[in-house]
Model the fold of this input.
Amino acid sequence: MLDQLGLAETLAQQCFACRQTVNYDKDGNESPGRGWSFMENMKDTMWSFALVLRQKYQEEIFRRALKKEGVELEAPWELKSIEVLQDVNAGGYKVLASLTNPSTGAKRTVKCRYLIGADGGRSSVRQMMNIPFDGSSSPDKWVRVDGVIETNLPKPRTYCAIESPTHGNVLWAALDHGATRIGYAFTAERQKAYEVFDEEAAVKEAIASVKPFSLKFKQVDWWTLYVVGQRIARNFFVNDCIFLAGDACHTHSSGAAQGMNTGMHDAVNLGWKLSLVLQGLAVPDLLHTYESERLPNVHKLINYDKDISRLMTMQLPENWQGDPNADMNEVLGQVMAEAATFSSGLGIYYEPDTYLNLAQSSNICSVRPGERAPDVSLQKPATFEPTRLQTATPNIAEFYIVVFAGDAALTKPLLSAFTSSVPQSHWLFDSKYPVSWLSIFDGPGGPSAYETLGGMPFGRVFYDADHSAHERYGVRPDNGAILVLRPDGWVGTVIELGLGGKAALEKYFQRFLVLDAEPKL
Ligand SMILES: Cc1cc2nc3c(=O)[nH]c(=O)nc-3n(C[C@H](O)[C@H](O)[C@H](O)COP(=O)(O)OP(=O)(O)OC[C@H]3O[C@@H](n4cnc5c(N)ncnc54)[C@H](O)[C@@H]3O)c2cc1C
Done:
């Protein structure tokens, strides 16, 4: 997602790209196949590693990118109250937000069409809108300490788990800028030893948690002690104008490192929808899909997190049906492996519906509407430079109609039927609408895309020189297929190549695009 937003490269410049994991048992012996080992099996992406970069560095990169777009964070201003104007229709200026600047005492009222509560786990927006935050906190406390260390642990620059008999499944994570994070469960038993739990105590317990290995902090950058719990807001969108995103609508442990990731999924899901509605290019109803898509995925995350956080503190999952004497570290590895594609984000999908993730055909493509479109290698025409589908489809609040043209010699009749009918829908080619085209030919590139096709191809042309793109998408070279990719990179619909393609495209877009739109922004 961040790649398609043009942010990933800058993150990669500063990150620790972690490709190696290791698991040690309580005696310090390596025990392969447990702990974080699932991270070594991430496939189907260029980004097949954990991009580790602490949040303060990431936020700086995001702020700089926002500034380039003319957006600046006015952090001193605090939201004090919200009034929703009930007599204003959905999509109108329904919100009055009262703000105060605590350092100057200045007050301001902002009238707006939408308000996003991205204001963290104690969200004042959630509280002002009386949205229940369902869930509970556990008695478990976890500690995280970041710093520069010395150790005799054999593989310190990895994502590592240590099966401690006293501190749960200990996290040892190589971080950016040469730092390391140690994370451990701080049990009620060990809490008794401390009247005050300060940095010195956090470090002392960290040293105890990684035994039998040695650990010395040359520098402590940051530490925290926090209570683990799982909560989810009952609604992510209320009154047709107020959204919740990030920790404001879901909090959980940091066990699977998913908090910020999930917040980013929220933001990426909502961003393009809001952009199109604000520009007058999509109907306000589209915004309801934010909750219907994100809420079930957050429920899934919360369920995984309940199991993972219990196992990390050496308790079997609630309602555990298996062997009561099961090895909890082994079960933890299994649960994390099961959640792997969800945690990497590549397996996050939205249920097919009758609106945005529209199933219109079967057996012509193995990737379904509602699934993330896999990244594939492509070849540019003329220079034959390698590129990728995600590079060719940046997230700029625009849909991409991707014509998998198959082997043009075999699909010529289908292509001709499609190319002769679809230009009648002029708006599909009008740059004022958020739709653009790509054509991918199966096979190595020739001197001229026009000649390969026997006419002008749609949009930018790419070649699938080694057939891997058609294979990954399960598209037959003699059949082809048309995929509509949503701006966020998920598949919107899959359509048969041929005469019916025009009607199927119209059917899809007419549900939410405003086709007589005059863009407002
Ligand atoms: C120890 C630890 C480790 C973690 N590790 C990971 C990890 O490895 N990977 C991962 O993905 N996530 C991780 N997370 C989770 C991640 O930090 C959070 O999910 C993320 O910070 C949430 O971002 P947010 O923007 O939703 O909320 P926040 O970061 O809490 O930001 C909310 C902002 O809103 C502001 N605000 C609040 N109220 C108001 C108001 N009334 N008016 C104006 N502004 C207001 C706050 O000042 C704050 O700046 C970890 C969390 C912890 C505690």
Remarks:
- The first strand starts at residue 16 and ends at 18.
- The mean pLDDT is 94.
- The domain at 1-73+114-348 is CATH 3.50.50.60 (FAD/NAD(P)-binding domain).
- The CA atoms of residues 245 and 271 lie 11 Å apart.
